[in-house]
Amino acid sequence: MPSNSPSGQTHYVAELEDTPVAAVDRLDESQKARSTWADAWDSMRRRPSFWISSVLILLIVVVALFPSLFAQTAPDACDLGNSNDGPAAGHPLGFTRQGCDVYSRIVFGTQASITVGLLATMLVTLFGVIIGALAGFYGGLLDALVSRIGDIFFAVPTVLGAIVLMSVLPVRTPVTIAVVLSIFAWPQIARIMRGAVLSARNSDYVTASIALGVSNSKILLRHVIPNSLAPVIVIATVSLGTFIVAEATLSFLGIGLGSDVMSWGNDIGQAQTSIRTSPQVLLYPAAALSITVLSFLMLGDVLRDALDPAARARR
Amino acid sequence: MLWYTGKRLLQMIPVFFGATFLIYFMVFSLPGDPIAALYGDRTPSPGVIAQIRAQYYLDQPLLVQYFHYMVGFFQGDLGTTYSGRPVSEVMASAFPVTARLAMLALIFEAFAGVLVGLIAGLRKGKLFDASALVVSLLLISVPTFVIGFVLQFVFGVQLGWARTTVSGEAPLNELILPALVLASVSFAYIVRLTRASVSDNLNADFVRTATAKGLSRPRVVTVHVLRNSLVPVVTFLGVDLGSLMVGAIVTEGIFNINGVGGTVYKAIKLGEGPTVVSFIAVMVVIFVLANLLVDLLYAALDPRIRYAK
C-alpha cells in the first residue's frame, strides 16, 4: 500500500495480515492455551512405536488381570509323561520338564512380573516425588539432609542391595520384592524431581503466584509439582521395565519369588537345566518377559521425545 | 581442581559410612534372629552360633557392632565365608579372574559402543541408525542371564566354537564369550548415550565454528564432536559398574568361572548368607570408590567443571 509522505518519498507499509501483530490479534482469549500434555499427545499419536507399545502393554495388563480368559489348560495340570515334549494339539508351545503346558504357565506367570513392576514403580514414584519436591521447593537444611541421605542409598546398586536383603528375608512375595527394590531405587526419581522443581520454582508463574499472595503449599501442589512431573513420568516408565528384569534376575538366582509362585523369572531359572534338549522351555518365557520390558522401554522413549520440546524440534 | 577434588573426597566420607552401615543395619536389625535368617533353612550348630555372636558382637548395640566391623574392615578383615575362610583371602584368589573378565567386557562395550553410537549419531535417521536403536533396545530388554544361556547354547553347544564352561585358570580366550555376555547391556546403553550426545553436539556452536574455520570433516568429528560426546559416557561407566557387578554374578555363575561373581553366585544358591553379605559389602565399597574416581576424571575431561567453584 504505497503512501505519500509530506517529503514526497514513497513508503511501503505491509498489510496488517502480514505482520506479527496479526498473529497476536488472532489469539482468541476465550480459548484455553494448549497444555504441554496436549502438545505431547499430538506428537505421540503420530508415532507407530507409541501405538505398538500401548497396545502391547494394554494386552499384557489384561492377561495379568484375567489369565483364565487366555489359557484353557490349567498351568498346574502337569503330566510328567509329557516332560520336555514339543508342541502338541492344544499345547502350542510344548511342555516343561515337569510336563506343564508352557503357554499356560506364561499366561499365568504374567501377573507376578506385572505386579512387581507396577508396585515398585508406584512406590518409587510416590516416595521420590514427595521427597524431591519438598527438598527442591523448601531448600536449605531439609534439602541438604535429604540429598545426603539419598546419596547413601544411591551408592548401593539396586540389585546388589536387593540381593543382600532378599537373602536374609524369610518372606518372598511380589510385594516384598517390590518394596526391597524401591528401597534402593527411590533416590533416582527424587534427584530428577528435585532438579525439575528447582527450575520450576524460579519461573514467572511462581513469582506471579507469590506476588498474588498464594500460600506456599498451594503453589507447590497446584503449580510446581504438576509442572515438574514430565521427566519423572519418563524415568518411571523406563524403570517399570528394569524392575521386571530385576525381579526375573532375583528369581533366577533363587532369592526372588518363592518357587511355588508362577513367574517368568522362576520358569526361566528352572528351564536352564533343559536348555540343551528343549530350548523352547527357556526361550518362550524369556520372549514374553523381553516383549513386556521392550514395550515399556519403547513407551518411555516416545514419552521422552514428546514431553521434551527441544527433542521434538530436533526430530 | 584441588578445591573440587577436596570437596568430592569430603562428600564421599558420609556416603562411604552410610552405605556400609545401611547394609549392616539391614542384615542385623531385621525382626527375628539374624543368624537364623543368614543360614536360611539350615540350623547351624550351637558352636557356630556362639562364634558368630562373638564375631559380629551381636549382644551389643547395633552401633557398637558396626563400629567393630568397620575397625576390622580398615585392618583388612573383610569378614569370613560360610566355611570359615577369610573373605580377603578368597577375594585375593578370585579377583584376578574377575578383573580379566571385567577388563575384556569394558574394552568391548566402550570401544564398540562408542563406535556404533558415533556412526549412528552421524547418520541420524538412516538405516544404520535405525537398526542400532532397535538392536540396543532389544539388548536392554533381554535379561543378561537369558543372553548368557542363549550364547552358551549357540556358540558352546551347537557350533562348538567356545567352551561352555571356563576352566580353572580362566585364560583370556575362554573369557571372550562370557565377556560379550557381560558387556551386552552396557554396550546398548553406551550406543544410545553416544548417539544422543553426538547428534546434540553436531548442532553445537563450537562444531560450526570448527567447520567454518576450515577444519576437515574427520578432524571436526574426532577432535570436537567425539571428545565432547565422551563426557556423559565416562560418567555412565561409573554408575554402570553396579550393574556390571550384578552381571558378573550372573555371568560367572552361568559359565562357572571361579571369580568374585561366581563365588557370590554359589553362596546365594547354597543359602550361605554371611558370605553373600561380606562380599557385597566389599563390592559396594569398590563401587563408591570407583565413582569418586570417575568424578575426578569427569573434571579432567570437562574444563567447565574444573574451574567452577
UniProtKB/TrEMBL annotation, chain A:
<keyword id="KW-0812">Transmembrane</keyword>
<feature type="transmembrane region" description="Helical">
    <location>
        <begin position="231"/>
        <end position="255"/>
    </location>
</feature>
<dbReference type="InterPro" id="IPR025966">
    <property type="entry name" value="OppC_N"/>
</dbReference>
<dbReference type="InterPro" id="IPR050366">
    <property type="entry name" value="BP-dependent_transpt_permease"/>
</dbReference>
<dbReference type="Pfam" id="PF12911">
    <property type="entry name" value="OppC_N"/>
</dbReference>
<protein>
    <submittedName>
        <fullName>Oligopeptide transport system permease protein</fullName>
    </submittedName>
</protein>
<feature type="transmembrane region" description="Helical">
    <location>
        <begin position="50"/>
        <end position="70"/>
    </location>
</feature>
<feature type="transmembrane region" description="Helical">
    <location>
        <begin position="175"/>
        <end position="193"/>
    </location>
</feature>
<dbReference type="GO" id="GO:0005886">
    <property type="term" value="C:plasma membrane"/>
</dbReference>
<feature type="transmembrane region" description="Helical">
    <location>
        <begin position="281"/>
        <end position="299"/>
    </location>
</feature>
<comment type="similarity">
    <text>Belongs to the binding-protein-dependent transport system permease family.</text>
</comment>
<keyword id="KW-1003">Cell membrane</keyword>
<feature type="transmembrane region" description="Helical">
    <location>
        <begin position="114"/>
        <end position="137"/>
    </location>
</feature>
<dbReference type="GO" id="GO:0055085">
    <property type="term" value="P:transmembrane transport"/>
</dbReference>
<keyword id="KW-0472">Membrane</keyword>
<dbReference type="InterPro" id="IPR000515">
    <property type="entry name" value="MetI-like"/>
</dbReference>
<dbReference type="Pfam" id="PF00528">
    <property type="entry name" value="BPD_transp_1"/>
</dbReference>
<feature type="transmembrane region" description="Helical">
    <location>
        <begin position="149"/>
        <end position="169"/>
    </location>
</feature>
<keyword id="KW-1133">Transmembrane helix</keyword>
<dbReference type="InterPro" id="IPR035906">
    <property type="entry name" value="MetI-like_sf"/>
</dbReference>
<keyword id="KW-0813">Transport</keyword>
UniProtKB/TrEMBL annotation, chain B:
<feature type="transmembrane region" description="Helical">
    <location>
        <begin position="175"/>
        <end position="191"/>
    </location>
</feature>
<feature type="transmembrane region" description="Helical">
    <location>
        <begin position="275"/>
        <end position="301"/>
    </location>
</feature>
<dbReference type="GO" id="GO:0005886">
    <property type="term" value="C:plasma membrane"/>
</dbReference>
<dbReference type="InterPro" id="IPR045621">
    <property type="entry name" value="BPD_transp_1_N"/>
</dbReference>
<dbReference type="InterPro" id="IPR000515">
    <property type="entry name" value="MetI-like"/>
</dbReference>
<dbReference type="GO" id="GO:0055085">
    <property type="term" value="P:transmembrane transport"/>
</dbReference>
<keyword id="KW-0813">Transport</keyword>
<keyword id="KW-0472">Membrane</keyword>
<feature type="transmembrane region" description="Helical">
    <location>
        <begin position="101"/>
        <end position="120"/>
    </location>
</feature>
<keyword id="KW-1133">Transmembrane helix</keyword>
<keyword id="KW-1003">Cell membrane</keyword>
<feature type="transmembrane region" description="Helical">
    <location>
        <begin position="12"/>
        <end position="30"/>
    </location>
</feature>
<feature type="transmembrane region" description="Helical">
    <location>
        <begin position="233"/>
        <end position="255"/>
    </location>
</feature>
<protein>
    <submittedName>
        <fullName>Oligopeptide transport system permease protein</fullName>
    </submittedName>
</protein>
<dbReference type="Pfam" id="PF00528">
    <property type="entry name" value="BPD_transp_1"/>
</dbReference>
<dbReference type="Pfam" id="PF19300">
    <property type="entry name" value="BPD_transp_1_N"/>
</dbReference>
<keyword id="KW-0812">Transmembrane</keyword>
<dbReference type="InterPro" id="IPR035906">
    <property type="entry name" value="MetI-like_sf"/>
</dbReference>
<feature type="transmembrane region" description="Helical">
    <location>
        <begin position="132"/>
        <end position="155"/>
    </location>
</feature>
<comment type="similarity">
    <text>Belongs to the binding-protein-dependent transport system permease family.</text>
</comment>
